[in-house]
Amino acid sequence: MAATNAHQTRISPHLEKQMKRVGVVGLVTMGTSLLALLFLMPFAYGGITSFKDKEQITRSAKGSILPMDPILFEYAQVYELDGEQLPVYNVQPTEGITRTVQQWALVSGDPESGKSTFVDTRSSSRFYEVEDGVATIREQPTNVQITPLVTQLEIYEVPQDDGSVRELAALTKRQTSTTFINLADPYGEKIEWEGRYLTLDQKMEFAPRMGNFEEAWNRADFLKLFRNTLAIAVLGMIGTLISSILVAYAFARFPIPGKNIIFLILIGTIILPNQVRLIPTYAFFSRIHWTGTWLPLIVPHFFANAYNVFLLRQYFLTLPREMDEAAMIDGAGPFTILWRIIIPLSWPVIVAVSLFHFVFAWNDYFEPLIYLLGKPDLHPISVGIQQFNFIYDQEPHLIQATSLLALVLPVFVFFISQRFFMQGVVVTGVDK
Amino acid sequence: MTTTSEAVAVEQEIRQPAEKSMSLEKQRQIWGWIFLSPWIFGFFVFTALPMVASLAFSFTDFDLNAADEINYVGLENYERLFTDPNVDNALWATAKFATIALPLAIGLPVLLASLLNSRFLVGKAIFRTLFYMPYMVPLVSATYIWGGVLNTETGWINRFLEEIVGIPNGPNWVYSTLWIYPALNIIGLWGIGNAMLFTLAAMQGVPTELYEAARVDGAGPFGQFRHITLPMISPIIFYNLILSVIGLFRYFEVPFILKEGSGDPGGATMFFNIHLYQTAFTFKEMGYGATLAWLLFVMAMGATILIFVTARYWVYYAAAED
């Protein structure tokens, strides 16, 4: 023991430093994890809510965050007559003057077939004979429907005087006291409890609703929305790739007078608020009858985009010029050099640009909103789910389910291609 | 005479290959213009002309419901700007939103990037991915998901306040004229990814010798942050600031989706761009809409220029001092 102590004191400065470092690392990493958890918490909210129904969501205001249903205890009501407990039935006359449901208790016989005798639960002196579904009420033979009276009782954890807790089913709930029954012996002695039942813990069970995603998928017609979005995204992607590569190639490789100024103007369009060109552009598209079609969402991408040109140009500039010069001496034209040398070497940035466009098109909301007004068949996912959720305003579980369905693909694409993605983002941000 | 003609001949001899290369140069120039042409055409058709047309529209009563009757109305639309209660309202809404949004947009990426750049953090790449990922979520989805989280009764924030913190009646978030602005900013948090990534990359680009030198001079972690990190990343802060300010004027999607463009509660979400949308596309008043658009443009450009002018006092360009 003493030896270990001495040993520890000897190396303690180093050990202490090491321990301190491990401590700080642990603390910082844990704090960051907590922050990340908080930041991503809404995904969990959306996910869990998507497995609830409306009632469960409403109930979550006071209860559990998970989709839970109350556990219910099926209790066949009984009526006490002369110290005997008789099963109670609902009796519904299907003809005659009075159609009011009455509650009778079975005294003898079988209500399903043959002859049976009932007693009225409101007055123990009034007896009825029933034969083959026909009762004699006020001396009139009346057809009746007889069903057992079963109530679903909520189960609560009720604290007892001795400090223990018992699971009991609430038979009669009142403001300040409740009559409970024992689950094991429902027809035994009843248990009176003083206090507000609302303060008790109710017994619940995990009961996720599995159908919300399917319902959202079908009702919002996600297949159509996916198809539309993909078509718009892919066509625009082709356009922006072709045009942006050409323009970036021009900026990276060709002597153009005033190139720097032109490039500055191009970059300047990034901070130009779109609104200032929106209205005439809309009026123009409306005049040539392109509103109500996908063309305004696709065609402008065939004329290059500042971000993409910038990204591609930065990459092209890093490629050694010697290669295209050698090819030029061999007689290769500008297109051949682009196709055979530049593009094959630039696939990481081309992937990044394609991804950016895909995500842009998937998320774009404003332009489809104005150009596809009143054309729900052409709507992409963003406008589609917004319009769906506008209609199903009162169905929060469906809103969460559609929102999750809409984000799965872009988030998935991001995860499998994050390296390209983040590198591309960094280039556009830092190099400027 | 002979000398001159000889000289000319020699000169021509010298110039000929030069001219040939000039023509090659010329040829390459033409190719350059050809490759540039998609953007130049697009710039004129989709940017320059519409901008000018927008200005022209602002002096007319152009109404898409009666597209063939366009009348010159002089400065009428501009006078209307001063009497339009929605313009006032929109500017106030933007200002209130900005008082929270701008500090967040500038400060949070720096804080988060510092955290992700910390030498005490394990699993940096994973955290970077996690904090960036919500940026990929479509705004429509993000708005609805956060809308649920912010629900007064069943949302997790108010549940947390009640169950854990012990505040039984949490804010009315998106239904309150006061809390709507924090709520919109909370929804906007998921858009922090890009700015964070830029800042992080800039921080990683700061030469380590600078920190070593500062340590030798006795600077603590905060001193290093204040005197090295901040100046070195100030160009990125500048860039983030410009994009955020322009984003403020463009702000549309989240409040529009959340409130279906109604401006509720009490006009608190009737941001400038939503008013512009309603004017131009709901009421089809393109002339006045164009006026609003130009006002937006002028304000956004004014703010940008202001930031550019002040930049020389607080943005540090290492390259400029070389």
Give structural notes:
The complex is a heterodimer of chains A (432) and B (322). Chain A contains 15 helices and 15 strands. The model of chain A has no long low-confidence stretch (mean pLDDT 87). Chain A has helices at residues 2-49, 54-59, 212-219, 222-253, 259-268, 275-287, 295-298, 306-318, 321-329, 334-345, 347-363, 366-371, 381-391, 396-416, 418-430, and strands at residues 68-70, 72-76, 78-81, 84-93, 102-109, 115-120, 127-131, 134-137, 140-148, 150-159, 165-173, 177-182, 191-194, 201-202, 204-206. Chain A is elongated and about 115 Å long. In chain A, the strands form three sheets. In chain A, strands 2, 10, 11, 12, 13 and 14 form a six-stranded antiparallel sheet that branches. In chain A, strands 4-5-6-7-8-9 form a six-stranded antiparallel beta barrel. In chain A, strands 1-15 form a two-stranded antiparallel sheet. Chain A is α+β, with helices and mostly antiparallel strands. Chain B has two domains: 2-57; 76-321, Orthogonal Bundle (MetI-like fold). In chain B, 73% of the residues lie in helices and 0% in strands. Chain B has helices at residues 2-57, 76-83, 85-117, 124-132, 139-149, 156-165, 180-188, 193-204, 208-216, 221-250, 253-259, 272-282, 286-314. In chain B, helix 5 (139-149) packs across helix 11. Chain B starts with a helix and ends in an 8-residue tail after the last helix. Chains A and B meet through helix 1, helix 4, helix 5, helix 6 and helix 11 of A and helix 1, helix 4, helix 5, helix 8 and helix 10 of B.
